[in-house]
Amino acid sequence: MNLVITSAGTSGLPIISGHLAIFADRVFYTSSDSSTGEELRSMSESVFGASTFANINPGAASSSPRDLTPTPLGMFFTADDGSTGRELWVTDGVPTPVVSGIPAGTHLVADINPLAASSNPSQLVFADPGLFFIADDGVHGSELFVTTGAGATFLGDINPGPGSSAIANLASAGSRVYFSADNGQSGRELWTSDGTPAGTHRVADIIAGPGSSNPSSIVGSVGRAYFAADDGVHGPELWTSDGTESGTHLVADINPGPAGSNPRNLTIVGNTLFFTGDDGIHAEELWALPPAPPCTADFNQDGLLNPDDLSDFINAYFNEPPDPAADFNHDDLINPDDLSDYINAFFDGCA
Fold first, then answer.
1. What's the rounded Cα separation, in Å, for the pair 87 and 69?
2. pLDDT, tens digit, for every residue of 177-203?
3. What pLDDT score does 46 carry?
């Protein structure tokens, strides 16, 4: 959130110009003064007024905190402490005890680009495995990392060598993220990551070869992504993906032919996707995609249908006593019909 207040307005409160977030029952923001520079400040309900939360770059120099991102793991942000360059930091939001101007629960996550060089973390997005972000380690260009707050894991050199894969539109979808990237061979296409190097991969080459489908406006919901893309036939239209090549497909050819409807402003409210698009008749208008019926074979309800669902259902069925979740037919009985019907549903797949 970006906030600019051009006058103090209320006696005792500072002029705020910068990023703002609410975390741990405190309001965090950045502002500058002559003694500490631009640093992280906070206010709480219990104490009137504001105070310097952390003087990350000592003295009057500025650490210029940016991208304040509250998560269940802490509030992440980027800052420059004057010695490690602009890197990723995290705080637990607790203001005391303070050591050398910094609360004990506030610390550098990792010096990704060593020494004084900056990795310039950006696109901070939380998904269940941790905080995903883009950074440049000085060797691989700007690529994808993940952290749980202590150290950071490099998820892969998508565009091998020092060149960047130009990751964009990073979006959370429950237990994974989706994004667009260019690996230098297949153009800009849809990628996904579950927070492990092995689970970071291109989803589909929507335009085969070096051409780009240019996925954009990516939004995620429980493992699934919705986005605009151009397959070279239908023009830019609405697509969806469950993270697999077979589960990536055109939702609708809203403006038939190669012109495309140019979906934009994708927003999920509840279980409904809203977006703007032009069907070639009514100009750009608001559209809605109603929620798909739940996939009954997705036993773990994580938005993905994979062998884990089958294994977990079988374990639930053969437990002694059987897990009530194995009542697939919801008839208050657990019997071979449940096992047979679940297996059939699993191999039928999800729409």
1. 14
2. 999 999 999 999 999 999 999 999 999
3. 67
Q: Are strands 86-91 and 106-110 parallel, antiparallel or unpaired?
A: antiparallel
CATH C-level class of 2-289: mainly beta
Each residue of 74-114: pLDDT tens digit?
999 999 999 999 999 999 999 999 999 999 999 999 999 99
| Nearest partner of 147 among 173, 167, 117, 125, judged by Cα | 125
Question: Angle between the 336-348 and 307-318 helix axes, to the nearest 10 degrees?
Answer: 180
In this prediction, residues 49-66 reach a mean pLDDT of 92
Residue type, 19: H
CA distances from 318 to 33, 174, 308, 310, 315 (A): 65, 29, 15, 12, 5
Instruction: Spell out the domain ranges in the chain.
Output: 2-289, 307-348
SS3 content of the chain, % helix, strand, coil (to 5): 10, 40, 50
Q: Side chain identity at 109, as an amino acid letter?
A: V
What is the pTM assigned to this prediction?
A: 0.82
pLDDT digits (tens, 9 = 90+) for 245-293: 988 999 999 999 999 999 999 999 988 999 999 999 999 999 999 876 6
Contact between 141 and 159 under an 8 Å Cβ cutoff? The reply is: yes
d(CA 177, CA 304): 13
* Cβ within 8 Å of residue 288, ≥6 positions away: 272, 273, 274, 275
Residues facing residue 250 across a β-bridge? 239
C-alpha span between 127 and 117 (Å, rounded): 28
In 64-170, alpha helices (H): none
Q: Which two tokens stand for residue 312?
A: 């977990």
DSSP string, 182-238: E-SSS-EEEEEE-SSSTT-EEEE-SS-TT-----EEEEEETTEEEEEEE-SSS-EEE
CB atoms within 10 A of CB 182: 21
Element (H, E) at 7: none
SS3 state of residue 88: strand
What are the backbone dihedrals phi and psi of residue 340, each rounded to the nearest 5 degrees, phi first? Answer: -65, -45
